[in-house]
Design goal:
By secondary structure, the protein is of the alpha+beta class. Helix content is 55%, strand content 10%. The chain folds into three domains: 54 residues, no CATH class; 169 residues, Glycosyltransferase (Alpha/alpha barrel); 144 residues, Glycosyltransferase (Alpha/alpha barrel). It has 14 helices and twelve strands. Strands 9, 10, 11 and 12 form a four-stranded antiparallel sheet that branches. The protein has a two-stranded antiparallel ribbon with strand order 1-2. Strands 3-4 form a two-stranded antiparallel sheet.
């Protein structure tokens, strides 16, 4: 399950320094960042000199979810057994130094001028995939062997994440386990994770957690713009992109299944209409990256955006559109058994078989369809 990654260049010491320079001083850092981007995209994309394959918790978790989807459709016991092996690995590789089970990127990542997550920082955006796989495996097998991990992971969302903003009716939680930043999709992940794990948690004031879920949802609801979109963050010079918009929508949809949210149907309808109108390229049959950007880029189409739209179409029952999108993804991103994660501005496919970004999200969406 180890894999190269589109982020490999920024994981190198030189790449990390260049990215942080850009984060702190955009004009000074633009040149070094552009040089490294060109080198990674046009020179080193296939050779990957100086990069190394790495295991990512989200890859293991998404692989388990794919296997569980296939088990639901096929019923073959070996699919369930392999999903269990991934979950065992995840429990054994929970990030150290925290009181609860939690997972993150596994590499240092600079998210802004003053916010840096080291390789051992758990994140509210990575941990939910493990939690969902643990819960789904427990439901399917009726086994209790992962109950302790579910309850521990619940504590990460309930206690380790910080409150970044709160009033009488709404609240926003942190991205990582410290006072860092407000990100709308991270708030939605926390909301969904609390709702998903709560039935498996004993000895907790469930009414308090239910109220917290409602306040997180209300923050998301209030942050939705009149056109149905969300800024990635209400702080700083933000952007609107496709796959994070889909993540907010899927988390609201899945939370609403287990804990009804007032007005969720209207919120989802407006958001999904925005995604299909603002990002879809009719000529290519694919979804673009941004409707509002805050920096230049050389990626024209990204598999992650299209995988998350495909997943959302599956959830919302938009099957005809999902089939049409799947055909476009296969035609544009797939060659034989190889899957590419990006198409650059010159129309060339890049980042072959990079599992984290975004082959596994794509396979997860497909595993629900066939």
């Amino acid at each position: 399950m180890s894999t190269y990654d589109p982020y490999d260049i920024w994981k190198t010491p030189l790449g990390f320094q260049a990215k942080q320079l850009y984060n702190r001083h955009p004009w000074a850092g633009l040149g070094p960042a552009a040089i490294l981007t060109v080198f990674d995209t046009f020179v080193n994309n296939r050779m990957r000199i100086g990069y190394r394959r790495q295991e990512y918790p989200i890859v293991r978790a998404t692989a388990a979810l794919c296997l569980l989807n296939r088990y639901e459709k096929r019923g073959h016991p070996h699919l369930l057994a392999y999903a269990g092996r991934h979950l065992n690995w995840l429990v054994e590789h929970s990030f150290r130094g925290y009181s609860s089970y939690c997972w993150g990127l596994g590499f240092s990542y600079g998210a802004g001028p003053t916010v840096v997550y080291d390789a051992n920082t758990p994140l509210s955006t990575m941990t939910p995939y493990v939690l969902e796989a643990l819960v789904r495996y427990t439901v399917m097998t009726r086994e209790e062997r992962f109950h302790f991990a579910i309850e521990s992971t619940f504590q990460f969302f309930d206690r380790d994440l910080q409150v970044m903003a709160e009033d009488r009716e709404s609240m926003a939680t942190s991205y990582g386990p410290f006072l860092d930043r407000i990100v709308i999709n991270a708030v939605s992940y926390t909301m969904y994770s609390l709702a998903l794990a709560l039935p498996y948690v004993s000895g907790q004031p469930k009414q308090r957690v239910q109220e917290k879920i409602g306040k997180l949802y209300r923050y998301i609801q209030k942050a939705q713009r009149p056109d149905g979109s969300w800024l990635y963050s209400p702080q700083g010079r933000s952007f609107i992109d496709c796959f994070h918009s889909c993540i907010v929508l899927k988390n609201v949809f899945k939370t609403n299944l287990v804990r009804p949210l007032p007005g969720a149907e209207d919120l989802i309808a407006a958001g999904y209409a925005y995604v299909k109108s603002a990002f879809f390229d009719e000529q290519r049959g694919l979804f673009r990256r941004f409707s509002l950007t805050n920096k230049p880029g050389i990626v024209r189409f990204d598999l992650y955006d299209n995988a998350e739209v495909l997943n959302l179409a599956n959830l919302l029952g938009d099957r005809d559109f999902g089939v049409r999108l799947l055909d476009s993804i296969r035609a544009e991103f797939c060659r034989g058994l190889d899957v590419y994660s990006q198409i650059d501005v010159s129309g060339i496919r890049r980042n072959r078989n990079t599992l984290r970004w975004a082959v596994l999200p794509f396979l997860h969406a497909v595993s629900q369809m066939i």
